[in-house]
Write a structure and sequence with these properties.
77% helix; globular
Length: 419
């Protein structure tokens, strides 16, 4: 299936900006500037924030967990990888489930369960108990990750879907920053258990607010959950000329991103930097660059096309990665900012591109992309530990650079196919 990589007007049905929308009167969709638009924006922003705070709050305290439970950095990273891995697994089911039972009910239930599992993880006194709760947290969060983009595509007017997607992903970036910042600072002044409990309570409050203010779906049409239908749609997605390449792109981008933030804490806590845990947590402010770059990338795709913006974003990530090789905190911070800005921009473009190609089973198409995305987090995030153990930060830089070079080659192949 060939589509032009250049931007077209958002009213053209051949290539919507995020996901194809039902062929209904556009007047029935939520427009920018209306009270409903504000409700959806706030609800999805808070859901994205809570999701990523729950998922990544563990990342800056990996060195603390290594010490307390006497595990290696690679083993400690499993507490994050197991959550993202089970999230990836859950995405294969929660997306199709939302195609059957509805978007809002799946998202609300998932966010509530994830908050409760996080609170339980703060009470665990064995490493295996923590891993179990983290696995259940990731599994629960798959219901939010799989459905949020699909809800926006169905309810928001096509002319502002790209903008709404950018805001949603900016909530993800701020959530990732908040989770890391809060857990790092509270751990330094209290304990990691208190840090995780605070984040769990915050997510519980976000889930209740989300339940209260998110408008019910008006364009949702139940789909069959028959295994045969799911298998047919799965095969169609994989046989598409572009979707599999975007799945690979998501794997590579997220794998690179999580690997950097998994091990940068170990580097900065050690000599010659010798920063404390609170300061390492505060460095999560680099995520704010993602809250700017996400909506910016969504707007730029309308002007320049998806492929050029995607390739530029990956180059920005690679540049930022190389800058972190300096043994000075300020260049490292600048490199992290470039890396984060490039990542969130690239993810915005890639996730939007999925919708331009998926013609049926929107929830399943979204789930397959996010499955690859979080599988990259789980696999590369743990594999990077071997490079850190054997070669230090130079090894991490080599590993991430290889992932990003593959991401560039994949992006180039997408652009030459003119999808």
């Amino acid at each position: 299936m060939n589509h032009s990589s250049q931007a077209v007007t958002l009213t053209q049905p051949a290539e919507p900006s995020v996901f194809p929308v039902p062929l209904e009167d556009p007047a029935h969709f939520i427009r920018r500037g209306t009270p409903q638009f504000m409700q959806v924006t706030l609800a999805l922003f808070s859901a994205g924030l809570a999701t990523f705070a729950l998922l990544y709050c563990i990342q800056p305290i990996l060195p603390v967990l290594s010490q307390q439970f006497a595990v290696s950095p690679a083993a400690s990273s499993i507490s994050l990888s197991i959550a993202t891995g089970f999230m990836a697994l859950g995405l294969l089911f929660t997306g199709p489930l939302s195609d059957r039972v509805g978007r809002k009910s799946v998202m609300v239930s998932s966010l509530l369960l994830a908050a409760l599992f996080t609170l339980l993880s703060a009470m665990m006194h064995s490493w295996h108990g923590i891993l179990l709760m983290r696995a259940l947290t990731g599994l629960a969060l798959s219901g939010v990750a799989a459905v949020g983009m699909t809800y926006l595509s169905e309810e928001i007017h096509p002319s502002v879907v790209a903008f709404s997607m950018g805001l949603y992903i900016s909530g993800n970036s701020i959530g990732g920053m908040s989770g890391r910042l809060i857990s790092g600072v509270i751990t330094d002044f209290s304990s990691w258990r208190m840090a995780v409990a605070v984040i769990g309570c915050g997510a519980l409050a976000s889930a209740l607010m989300f339940w209260k203010i998110l408008p019910p779906s008006r364009h949702f049409h139940p789909a069959s959950l028959r295994p045969r239908s799911l298998l047919i749609n799965f095969r169609l997605h994989l046989r598409d000329s572009g979707l599999p390449l975007l799945f690979i792109e998501g794997f590579l981008l997220m794998g690179a991103f999580v690997t950097l933030f998994n091990y940068i804490g170990y580097r900065l806590l050690a000599a010659p930097f010798s920063l404390n845990q609170a300061t390492v947590g505060l460095l999560s402010v680099v995520y704010l660059t993602g809250s700017w770059s996400s909506p910016k990338a969504g707007a730029m795709t309308n002007k320049y096309g998806r492929a050029p913006v995607l390739l530029f974003s990956v180059v920005l990530m690679l540049t930022g990665m190389l800058v972190t090789l300096f043994n000075n905190i300020w260049p490292i911070l600048a490199g992290m900012m470039l890396f984060a800005a490039g990542f969130f921009a690239a993810h915005t473009v890639a996730s939007g591109w999925i919708g331009a190609l998926a013609r049926r089973a929107r929830g399943q198409a979204s789930s397959l992309y996010l499955f690859s995305y979080y599988l990259g987090s789980s696999v590369a995030g743990t594999a990077g530990g071997m490079f850190w153990h054997d070669y230090g930060w130079a090894g991490i830089t080599l590993f991430i650079s290889l992932l990003l070079i593959l991401a560039l080659l994949t992006g180039l192949r997408l652009s030459t196919r003119q999808l």
